[in-house]
Write a structure and sequence with these properties.
The structure is a single chain. The protein has 482 residues and is of the alpha+beta class. The chain has a single domain, classed as Tetratricopeptide repeat domain (Serine Threonine Protein Phosphatase 5, Tetratricopeptide repeat), CATH 1.25.40.10. Helices cover 49% and strands 20% of the residues. The protein is built from 15 helices and 11 strands. A 5-stranded mixed β-sheet has the order 6-7-1-10-11. A 4-stranded antiparallel β-sheet has the order 5-4-8-9, with no helix packed on it. Strands 2-3 form a two-stranded antiparallel ribbon. A hairpin with a 2-residue loop joins strand 10 and strand 11. Helix 5 runs antiparallel to helix 7, helix 7 runs antiparallel to helix 8 and helix 10 packs antiparallel against helix 11. It is elongated and about 80 Å long. It starts with a helix and ends in a 19-residue tail after the last strand.
């Protein structure tokens, strides 16, 4: 049997129950719904039930670590994210591919991108290290946070080099195959969801002003203004014309050199909503088969808003006696859209090659030698059966890859203030009503991470070189997630 027929048979046998028919969007909508109602343990149980195999994939550890963080289980969260980091490093260092990896890579050109081993998007790698640093800060480990921040800087340089190489490789492969790589040629594709002024204003898809501002704050807290300044400076470049960011750099030397006056310099990090979802939608592509053009159905990912959650306008202290405006610093939503925009040429390349391969495969099988019996008759019967299987299976598995780190916040803002040590009530006004928590602040520097997810406010905080922050959330009404 020709090699391509062997591949076809192997793929058809291995498809039932595989990742090609899994809806990651549907799974995470349920997970986020549980978490937004305050049922984080239920969300974790659901995540585990959706990932029953012992060899968990990268996304499992992404989502698990964030859910554990929401419930203040920082040690467990760090273990999950360390497992994710280990997988990322193994892939990035070019480990020898196993037979399964090769099959999945080949099958993405024949069946679906969903069969590819998931590789973290560039912005996900950066946000992973950023949140690992925030975990360290929530445990009062400023030195360990410093290590994670240094890794972030090194990672960005590696990503820039790898991104340039990937673009060149896609262009060369597309030219060799004569494949279409512009998603604007897809009739009906919602171009404006990823190609618009806000998305194109980003320098790239992976550099986060939050990551660099946090670097500046941590280095400042450790008494290293020479290292803090570059972090604040790059944050200003990535998010220009923001007075809070400009002030951090301008007054750095004065703050570091000032005597301890008993006030706590608090950085509030406010995350709202959840990262946007990817949904698979079908489009028709013209494909050459022999001497004629055939319209073949192909699926491509479309970015949609989900659990966006508009950030609050400000944060109130002690019943409104003092209020701070919030400064938008990082939009994971826009970073995800820019990532998809940058990756669409490669996605289009695989999609057009896949549809052409599938059409040619079916045509070749259907044109197998005809005969009444014997070897030719058996080949014809097998060819017809496999062609039918490919056609039937294509309806099920022709889905775009919907996998992406969904428990990340959609929008991130910051506020900063110097407040007296002691107990304070902070309140965020949201579309779902007021959300409050009591914080017992101490030490010269502190980071307070507030995460709004529909009905729930999650708080992560620890005072640098001081006592843990105590949390007292006011009961909130429960709403059904939209």
């Amino acid at each position: 049997m020709p090699f391509w027929r062997s591949i076809a048979v192997a793929l058809m046998i291995g498809l039932p129950g595989c990742a090609a028919v899994r809806s990651y969007d549907a799974e995470l909508m349920h997970t986020l719904g549980q978490a937004s109602g305050g049922n984080v343990d239920s969300a974790i149980r659901g995540l585990n039930s959706n990932n029953p195999l012992p060899d968990k994939d990268l996304l499992y550890y992404f989502e698990l670590g964030m859910l554990q963080r929401l419930s203040n289980r920082y040690d467990e969260s760090q273990k999950a994210w360390a497992a994710a980091q280990k997988r990322i490093e193994a892939r990035d260092q070019g480990v020898v591919a196993t037979a399964t990896d090769l099959l999945r890579s080949a099958s993405s050109y024949v069946v679906s991108d969903k069969l590819r081993t998931y590789e973290a998007h560039d912005y996900e790698k950066v946000m992973l290290l950023t949140y690992m640093a925030l975990n360290h800060l929530a445990m009062g480990q400023f030195e360990q946070a410093r290590v994670a921040i240094k890794q972030t800087h090194e990672l960005e340089a590696q990503i820039a080099e790898a991104r340039a190489r990937a673009i060149a490789e896609v262009e060369a492969e597309a030219k060799k195959r004569g494949a279409v790589t512009s998603f604007k040629e897809l009739n009906g594709y919602p171009v404006q969801t990823i190609d618009n002024a806000e998305v194109n204003a980003l320098k790239n898809s992976y550099q986060s002003a939050l990551s660099h501002y946090l670097a500046g704050f941590v280095y400042e807290a450790l008494g290293e203004p020479g290292l803090a300044a570059p972090g604040y400076r790059l944050a200003n470049e990535l998010q220009p014309n923001q007075p809070l960011l400009e002030e951090a750099l301008r007054d750095l030397d004065r703050r570091v050199g000032a005597a301890n006056d008993g006030l706590t310099d608090v950085l509030f990090v406010i995350g709202s909503g959840a990262a946007p979802a990817l949904q698979s939608r079908q489009f028709r592509l013209p494909v050459w088969v022999g001497t004629r053009t055939v319209l073949v159905v192909a699926s491509f990912p479309v970015m949609i808003e989900s659990y966006v959650g508009r950030p609050p306008a400000g944060i109130a202290f002690d019943g409104g006696s003092h209020s701070l405006p919030l400064t938008p610093i990082t939009s994971v939503d826009l970073m995800a859209r820019r990532r998809l925009l940058d990756d669409m040429p490669g996605i289009m390349l695989r999609g057009t090659v896949r549809t052409a391969t599938r059409a040619a495969l079916q045509a070749g099988l259907q044109q197998a030698p005809r005969g009444g019996g014997g070897r030719d008759g058996g080949a014809a019967a097998l060819g017809a059966a496999v062609a039918l299987a490919i056609a039937a299976t294509s309806v099920v598995v022709e889905k775009a890859d919907e996998r992406t780190w969904r428990t990340l916040p959609s929008e991130i803002s910051i506020a900063r203030a110097r407040v007296p040590a002691g107990v304070h009530t902070v309140t965020l006004q949201t579309l779902e009503g007021a959300r409050s928590a009591r914080l017992n602040l101490s030490g010269r520097y502190a980071v307070v991470d507030l995460r709004l997810l529909r009905n729930q406010l999650f708080v992560s905080a620890f005072s640098a070189r001081g006592a843990p922050v105590t949390l007292e959330q006011k009961p909130q009404p429960r709403e059904t997630p939209r």
